[in-house]
Design goal:
Layout lengths: L2 H5 L5 E11 L15 E12 L2 E7 H4 L8 E12 L1 E7 L13 H14 L4 H17 L2 E7 L4 H13 L4 E4 L1 E2 L12 H15 L5 E7 L7 H13 L4 E6 L3 H10 L6 H7 L7 E5 L5 H9 L3 E4 L1 H6 L7 H7 L2 E4 L11 H14 L6 H7 L2 H6 L17 E4 L5 H8 L4 H11 L5 E6 L2 E5 L11 E2 L4
Parallel strand pairs: 1-4, 5-6, 6-7, 7-9, 8-9, 9-10, 10-11, 11-12, 12-13
Antiparallel strand pairs: 1-2, 2-3, 4-14, 4-17, 14-15, 15-16
This protein binds guanine (GUN) and zinc ion.
Guanine binds next to helix 3.
Length: 461
């Protein structure tokens, strides 16, 4: 469909004038952002939206003449619009225990995580935390996330109910765990599978909601539960799967005692049929070359969670080895093991983890991994993570003048890479001016969307 013919359709069109940035593939570290064909940037751009979808995006001058005189044009000049961030690994029930210190993953789980997750047997609590959690995602510019609920079925219903209310594209699932956790969180292999199947039938593909089978990690599942999960993964290939692997050294030792005879921690999941497209593996720090090859061959994805890995002292993700193996990976917050909801803070820490292994994770790649790269990893390319015509209109407005320091640094940025690097290293929720889900403004830092006239260009120039 041409832009002109699509603009004649009934749905009212809304346009946004600003810098525009999105990615059509993984940027090359050998090219500047300006030269890279995978980096689409319009310094004076126009984004046209109708009916929750992007109708067109490009240079203001070349698109403005296609607008009808009734089209409302929001003037965001001086700001940068890009696709909303996609956080590929986060726990909504852990919102209340973010920033709770512990010497390692396992004591942190026992001391803080399991007790707080126990509270989600109460549907009202689950609903209240879901609302807070989604507000927090939106104020940080995150429009989609792959989310762990708790082992309580109603924790999933509460989350999807809230996400549906905001019309967001979210992936979530009920944690399955039938051992090595408090009784108040334990399910059984049979009940965990039955509840998961009922939930996926209820929610997967309902509006924008997608379901993920969620065995917490190998230590909290019996072989029977992993087997039942493998059966579901096979029966429902369209459904997602998420778990944790190779996060801390102490966890690795425990896993080798619980599952003797396996080649590696990842091999356990492999043997149960859990490595597959649409599977997301949190952390992947202590993998070897064979494991990375299996990740690549099975199209499984690693979610690198830098703030969590530094906070819990778990270890350093090996970017160079991940690139070498050609496995897919993304970056994610892992709240509440992670210490920030902000994908910008997360990029900052990812960059520094790279640095500690003499790896340069450049800014265009950090933004790619948080948008189009995550969409590709989730098999949602062409759906989210882009500003291309036909994709869902989940986008954010970044403000280079959000703080005096950011304003000062971005004013002297000599390239797109420098501008993006400043956002990644200095940015946080203050840098997010506004967040749109399916074309609707769901968050505005200054709440100006209540008076949208303030930024409307009345005359199309
Ligand atoms: N491994 C098993 N459960 C968890 C969790 O909730 N957070 C993190 N970071 N690792 C885990
Ligand atoms: Zn996690």
């Amino acid at each position: 469909m041409t832009i002109a013919s699509s603009l004649k359709q009934d749905a009212p069109h809304v346009a946004y004038r600003a810098g525009l940035l999105y990615f059509t593939g993984r940027p090359s570290t050998a090219l500047s952002a300006e030269e890279d064909p995978n980096v689409i940037y319009h310094a004076d751009g126009l984004l046209i939206v109708a009916d929750g979808k992007i109708v067109a995006s490009g240079d203001y001058r070349s698109l403005v003449s296609s607008l009808s005189s009734e089209t409302v044009v929001h003037d965001w000049r001086g700001k940068l619009i890009m696709p909303g961030f996609i956080d590929t690994h986060i726990h909504y029930p852990q919102s209340d225990i973010i920033a709770s210190p512990a010497p390692d993953l396992l004591p942190w789980l026992n001391t803080y995580t399991f007790p707080t997750e126990g509270k989600f047997s109460d549907p009202e609590h689950a609903a209240e935390v879901s609302e807070f959690f989604i507000d927090e995602l939106l104020s940080n510019g995150t429009t989609s996330a792959m989310v762990y609920c708790t082992s309580h079925k109603n924790s999933v219903n509460a989350f999807f109910t809230e996400s549906s209310k905001r019309n967001l594209r979210m992936i979530a699932g009920k944690v399955m765990m039938d051992r090595n956790c408090p009784d108040f969180l334990k399910d059984t292999a049979i009940d965990g599978a039955k509840d998961s199947e009922e939930l996926l039938q209820q929610w997967h593909g309902k509006g924008r909601q997608l379901y993920a089978l969620t065995p917490r990690f190998a230590p909290t599942s019996t072989p029977e539960q992993l087997g039942a999960c493998g059966e579901l993964a096979k029966a429902y290939p369209e459904v997602y799967l998420q778990t944790h692997v190779a996060e801390s050294k102490a966890e690795l030792k425990w896993v080798s005692e619980l599952f003797p005879g396996y080649r590696s921690y990842l091999d356990i999941y492999d043997q149960y049929g859990l490595l597959r497209p649409r599977s997301m593996y949190g952390h992947c720090i202590w993998l070897d070359e064979t494991d990375r090859g299996r990740m690549r061959d099975t199209q499984s994805v690693a979610a690198h969670c830098p703030t969590s890995n530094l906070f819990l002292g778990s270890g350093l993700f090996d970017f160079a080895a991940a690139d070498e193996s050609q496995m897919l990976y993304t970056v994610a917050t892992d709240v509440g093991g992670g210490s920030s909801f902000s994908m910008l803070r997360t990029m900052d820490e990812a960059h520094k983890i790279g640095r500690l292994n003499a790896y340069h994770l450049d800014a265009k790649n950090m933004f790619y991994l948080s948008t189009a790269g995550a969409a590709k990893a989730l098999d949602l390319e062409g759906t989210i993570g882009s500003l291309a015509a036909g994709t869902e209109a989940d986008f954010i407005v970044l403000d280079p003048n959000a703080t005096p320091l950011l304003a000062r640094r971005t004013a002297s940025a000599n390239s797109l890479e420098e501008l993006l690097f400043a956002f990644a290293l200095l940015g946080d929720d203050r840098s997010i001016q506004a967040t749109y889900g399916a074309g609707v403004c769901l968050h505005d830092r200054d709440d100006t969307r209540k008076a949208p006239e303030s930024d409307i260009v009345l005359t199309i120039q």
